Design the sequence.
């Protein structure tokens, strides 16, 4: 966020300095702002900010975008040093970012860790593909706090936690070392059971490969990997968490294409296979799997939507459009499908059809942030800026930090006609 777009610290002071005499250090990634900006607020509230923990430190604030872990998976240096000093009798208080924000009574534009976000919003904020967020939900890594007409809303903290653990595992950090680090963090934070469960599932996911006639695929990012052809190699390369059962590391997914023998699978099983293939970026076999799922159960709106996504990935935009319509034919309130219809219509040059789709989505769920943002952008393209302004402002009620929020704020500033617009 540009410095000019933010309220300055002295504009947000309330009452006497809340951090008078405190020496404050931040560790981990802050969800609400940069460490530099946080340091400015500390000084404005009567305290002193430092980059490193020392015997003079009185307060350590732990960021809430993921976990305070180093690149090797160990607890952050500042957190470890603070623990050592506390053991020696130094009075250092360790608190979470949200508690620090409450302490200084700050309402700063940024991520509200108590706010709920749609998959598309999290994609923009955390740079995680929507497909990955859906896969994490299917695996039980994240659970929606609520659902509105099939649309899940997630906790920012939970998704950020999974993303951080996933990044560390993919960089080669040993799962056991991560488990030990999380147990260590459990001494300071109560919310440790969920990330430990997430770690177990992620470690298992990291061992799972899909196999076709051309070799092995890592479904997490769609890349092919070498198959050295020995069970012994596969067993020695698979990391295990303590007390985990060993299991097969690959799944064959194209036998039904190579064999004339019918494969006895349910529609749900074909759908699950299609999702795995789509996660891996294998559009053509995913299309096949979703079609087989729909042959067994045509009234699966989710299968129609995922088939549309696979068709789009395969370059078949018109076919994807029709499948999105099939999804809303089976479930008129499927607002994600309506939103995708709007985006595709706009991509194909039919702005009015796009607006109609977004309007239906908003009739079903008036507080759907994604639809407000997309509708505003189409109205902007049509030079109907006055109609777009309310939708940009509504979007900012739900998201204050992500790239979409920055876009909405820029649009409002660009087209401000001199009226006293109030931005969140």
Sequence:
């Amino acid at each position: 966020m540009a410095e000019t777009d933010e309220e300055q610290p002295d504009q947000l002071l309330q009452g006497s300095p809340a951090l008078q005499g405190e020496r404050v250090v931040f560790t981990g990634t802050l969800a609400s702002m940069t460490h530099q900006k946080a340091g400015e607020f500390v000084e404005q509230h009567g305290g002193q900010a430092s980059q490193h923990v020392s015997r003079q430190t009185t307060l350590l604030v732990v960021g809430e975008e993921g976990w305070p872990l180093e690149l090797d998976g160990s607890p952050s240096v500042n957190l470890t040093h603070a623990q050592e000093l506390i053991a020696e009798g130094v009075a250092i208080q360790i608190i979470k970012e949200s508690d620090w924000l409450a302490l200084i009574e700050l309402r700063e534009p940024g991520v509200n860790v108590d706010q709920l976000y749609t998959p598309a919003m999290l994609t923009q904020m955390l740079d995680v593909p929507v497909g990955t967020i859906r896969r994490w939900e299917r695996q039980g890594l994240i659970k929606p706090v609520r659902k509105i007409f099939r649309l899940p809303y997630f906790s920012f903290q939970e998704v950020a936690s999974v993303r951080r653990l996933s990044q560390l595992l993919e960089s080669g950090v040993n799962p056991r070392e991560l488990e030990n680090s999380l147990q260590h963090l459990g001494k300071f934070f109560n919310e440790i059971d969920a990330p430990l469960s997430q770690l177990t599932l992620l470690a298992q996911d990291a061992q799972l490969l899909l196999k076709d006639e051309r070799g092995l695929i890592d479904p997490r990012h769609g890349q092919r990997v070498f198959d050295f052809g020995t069970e012994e190699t596969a067993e020695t390369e698979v990391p295990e968490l303590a007390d985990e059962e060993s299991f097969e590391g690959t799944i064959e997914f194209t036998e039904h294409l190579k064999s004339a023998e019918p494969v006895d699978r349910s529609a749900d099983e074909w759908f699950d296979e299609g999702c795995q293939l789509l996660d891996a970026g294998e559009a053509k076999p995913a299309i096949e799997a979703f079609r087989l799922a729909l042959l067994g159960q045509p009234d699966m709106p989710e299968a129609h939507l995922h088939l549309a996504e696979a068709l789009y990935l395969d370059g078949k935009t018109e076919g994807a459009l029709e499948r999105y319509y099939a999804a809303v034919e089976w479930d008129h309130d499927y607002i994600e499908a309506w939103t995708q219809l709007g985006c595709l219509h706009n991509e194909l040059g039919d702005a009015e059809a796009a607006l109609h789709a977004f309007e239906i989505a908003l009739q079903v769920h008036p507080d759907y942030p994604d639809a407000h943002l997309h509708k505003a952008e189409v109205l902007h393209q049509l030079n109907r800026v006055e109609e777009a302004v309310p939708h940009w402002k509504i979007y900012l009620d739900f998201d204050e930090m992500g790239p979409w929020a920055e876009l909405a704020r820029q649009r409002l500033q660009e087209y401000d006609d001199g009226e006293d617009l109030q931005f969140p």
Summary: The first helix runs from residue 35 to 44. The longest strand covers residues 23-27. The CA atoms of residues 66 and 104 lie 22 Å apart. Confidence is low (pLDDT under 50) at residues 1-16, 207-213, 216-222, 225-262.
